[in-house]
Write the structure tokens for this entry.
Amino acid sequence: MVVKKKTPKVEAVVLDDVKLKSLTDSLSVEGDSRSIELAQVLKDSLSSPDPVEQIQLISKAGFMLEQLREDESSTGPLLHACLSTLAFLYTTLPAKNPLKRAVASALRSGPDWLEEKTVGWLSECLSSSLSSMNTDQFSHLTDSITSCLDGFKIGEKCVHRLLTEVLQFFQRTLNYYVEQNRGLAGRHVAQAQLMQSCLAVVKASMLVVQRSQDPISSAMLSASSDQSDLHQVLCGLLNCYTCILTDEEFLQTVQSTAGMAVVLFIRSIMGNGDDVPVIVAGLLQCSVDAGDTVPQWLRLSCAGLYDSSRPAAVALYLSHGALAMLSWRGKTHGPQTEKLLLLIPEVLLSLDTRVKESSTVMVVARVLTLWSGAAVDCVQVDTCPPLLRSSLVGGSPLIARLHHHIYAHWEHPLDGVRHQTRTLFQNLLKIHQHCSDHKSDPTSDPYISQLTRDLLALEWHMKGKYGTLACLVEHLGAEYLLELDGGLPSRLLGLMGDQTLAPYASDLLEKLFVSHKAQLCARFRDGHAWIDGWHEVWVTPLLQVLCTARLDQTTYILDYFLPKLLRCNPSSLSHMVQALQEMPSCTEGAGSRGALGALMTCLRAARSQGVLKSDEEELWGGLVSLPLMRQALVHKHDQVRMDALGLLCESHRSTEKLSRQEMELIRHFLPFNLNSQSPGVRQQTVSLLKKLLCRVKESAQLLQKRQEQHENEKDQQVLNMYQEFLRWFCETLFQVLHPGASFSRCLMALHLLLLIAEHFTFNTGSVGFALGESVSVADAQAVLYCIANNFLEVKQLACNLLQKLPPAAVRLQEPERLQSLLQVALNLSTSTKPFDSVTAAHLLNLLLHQPGLQDALLGCIQEQNIPLRPPALNQSQVSEASTLEQNTLAVVQWLMICLKEEILKAESSLLQASACCPLYGRAHCITAVLQQLNTGSLALLSQWRAVVSELIGLCYRMSDVVSPVVQSSSPEGLIPMDTESETSADLQKILQEIQPRDSNDFFSSARELDPSETSHNCEQKEPENDVHKQQIFNTSGSDGEAYRVTAQMVLVCCWRTMKEVSMLLGHLCQSMTLYCPLTHPDSRGVITEDQVEGVGKYFREQLLQSRHRGAFELAYVGFVQLTEMLCRSGSATLQQLPAHWLKEVLEEVKSSDPSSKLCATRRSAGIPFYIQALLSSEPKSSSCGLLKMTMRSLTALAMPPNDGATESSTVPQVHALNILRALYRDTRLGENIVPFVSEGMQAAILGFTSPVWAVRNSSTLLFSTLITRIFGVKKGKDEHSKKNRMTGREFFTRFPALYPFLLSQLQEAAASVNSDSGQVKLHPSLFLLLLVLGRLYPSPMDGSSSPLGLAPFMPLIIR
């Protein structure tokens, strides 16, 4: 797909009247004729409102400047005014405006004799701008300076002339940004904008210094350079970079760029001598030599970098700076530079066990790869320096440490780390090759040979093994590895059934067979003599696996391996087909695809790669017969059928025509495969048929285009055949949609009909295939019945399809039908069956687009004899609003009127409301209707503001009605034991209606509500001995139907109402634009800040006090929508709310006790959800200050108290353990949570020793979550499978704090076993310790003396 390049936005120059008059006056003075013409063009451009015309006039002015001659034109005031005007425009326009480039082109067009004048005027304008103290202009000025250096010679001279002023501006700007950042805690949007601005300034300052090396060198050579303004401003900027590097609130990208800037500035000030590597080495080691190497100005300006308490990552960013800013390529280096090159990896490797954040680990991996590239450059010289050669040859201590780093990180969760680790391994091979004595024949190198054997000996579940072996294949060739392990191809093919390993195995296989082919071709120079041997090694094992292995073991061969093999050698296809056709049928194993299935797989891969081409006369060159294809299309194995269908549908060219045979085969396939019970097969079928329909569409367009140019009877026959096929396709699918059709049939048919609508449309005219003519009223009615289906996916597909069918077939334009459907929707919205309200919502969404909906709504209201009607709209407002907006407003207003009446009934009797008019249906319909609305372009703003305000109030009222049930201590229908005065009165009223007494008979003994009785009967208390009899209550219904109600129905009504209230409030906050009447009275917003804050307080109450899981889980979904809106809102007040709420709840958790309202049972109920939502709103690209603060607080609370367990400490500890468990499980926090895994594991293991059962229970749950978080989701039935294990080195490198902790805990547990009494006493945490250690295993690559090895644990475990 070709993506169009984004067109730059062109904006006209708009000046205030004073400035415009000043410029016009200056261009109106006397001058020569050419200057007057030039001035007039500039005046026209200033007064023109059209930006395109301005560009044209500026370009014309540039052409006129180019024509000026020194002997004909004078450099008088008018010409100066013209140059001054152009210079002013250049410094005023935004950097990305094309008009600015036009101005730069005009200034560049001036003759040489005017160049100095032009530089002078541009310098004057830029100097005037730089002296401005307006902080809003900092970003614009930074961009202007950068654009001066972007291929603009005059701009570059101007920057050189103003070098000190420019750098002083950068220093002033960076100081301002550093100060501003300290006050932006919690304001993520503002902080992100500040980081972008700060990064732009640091990059711009580096660019200026890089382009100004000559002026800086000249200034530094002067005698009094230390006292010069330029030297002082360079030192000032170094101080700014130091502040950025040592402030952990700055983003890593900014800090990394600042690290490069520090090295660049030191090199620029001191030159390229040997002192620079010494000083950079001192910065990396955080040491100041006793000698005079480090000058005083550097010690003062970079004092923070020489502080031993600086953050560990500072050395990382400085290492990056040294590698990026110092020259390593193509020259002989001095001894100091060589020492620096060897020091950098030592510094980086020391960070391995010190850094915790995954993002920092990623930077370490990237910088190590960068170092390896620099090392390759340094050793790729004629004579490799002895120091580098001895230090970087394979087997040296440094290389051994680097290999240990690779083995510890080659299975890191981040893809980027794994990729960088592989590149590092590849570069280390190149370094060794240049430093060793076996350059000509790597296979004779004992170090490489041993490394290859060690890697082959590793377990095949280790993903890092594949990438390193692929590097060795490139280095040694495939034949060497095949000599060491002849069964390598079969072993790798056997791994293709594992989805996690298939991509890695296929990449290694590709490297092997491509390298093997190249080696065989080089050996056999006489054409194709090599091919039989190659087939024997690679194709024969493949066919054997495809025919005999189980289907699930060969699933990914088609996706990952076969296409690569056929791309490498397309001629292998004929060999495969011949071998499979000759293969006896007895080779088919139980559950395998057999020779026929293998043939389909190979042909499908060949077809998709363009190796196999279809022929109109003979299908795919006669390689497969039609009866065989028919047999494959209805094969007993799903995957064989899918491969056969893929062979029909997939093609290398999307415009390839469908042959008549292919269409006949599709006709054979479709009826037998519409009722597949496998979701995966259904998904594959729809995907493949979509490709087929794309082929039909694109090939038809090509044929139609050819027909327009010159008519061709053959092409017309193909088009007619297409039309006939598509009509059959549609008719077959519509016939499937009869009442009572199975879910899978409905789903498949609707999916495929939607694909038809998407690609061809159901039009009824003469254009296209006119598929609308094949849609009857009965077909549309069958689709309409699907909206009543119990499955949500079927409802959604049917609703979407109805909007694309011909209106004449759907008949929604008929007033009677429209009104009857609307009445059905309104009736269903009060049903006690939850899926009925979903049906009502889909019906309303379907009807919202109809122009006659409001008349139909009035008709429904009149039929019910209700005097109320929705408010009328002004005619001017109606003309601006779309039909969808008007209909949505009318429906929402009417649903709100109905909802108010039902809330009144619920407030008087929740039991009656549960029986006849549950509130959740109306609320669900309102939410669904609002989701169809584009809230960014509302015309009826005043009405929507009133609706939103009233809706929020209704939501609060609904919540007040049902909250006594969902917030009770036992909401699942048991007798509550709450005694809080706030809720007990409402709860007792509800209980009086339900009458459970001391038994649970209300689960089986329902209550009947009979409308024939009076309300007085409802209030009479029944005798105690009639508890188990059916009760008679009054309802407001008039149809005489008796409703049977249990306490469970009341509960369902309550929690579903709570759910819909949460979803509605969340949607309102997320979709409605913010309205600030005080600060922005003209804004087109709808919801106010106070309303948003009120909704946040509501969610806080529900999440912290609800006991019913359904209620607080769905309140969490709505609250997440709210927090996302707060994060991206432009209001500083709203941006700071998450941080404020988070501190409040953490303080409440910290001070909670048994009398607290926070739920200490039910795994802390909604408290973890509340904190999850607040933390997940924090952008991942930020410094994650809220997450770090929260995790520090929670891990401190989760640790056992020093003074023993008390009631005041136990409850906060339980809450903290439950919240930590939820946070470690939250996938949205991603790798940001990993730095806190060590503390969580310690809290879980120590909590297991607590005497309090609640603490032990929560600790066990937390421990289980952490095991999954560390080792991954269980991937097999075998508990001892190494797929969910890791080496001890990898584990303790990622979590270094656990090494001494687990060792000390195991020593304590082992000591308790050998007690003096002679009785065996098992330590409480022993089981957990053994569970962790049981998932670790020693790696053969660790070596005998590993600092983080498992050896110290062995004697304790044996004991």
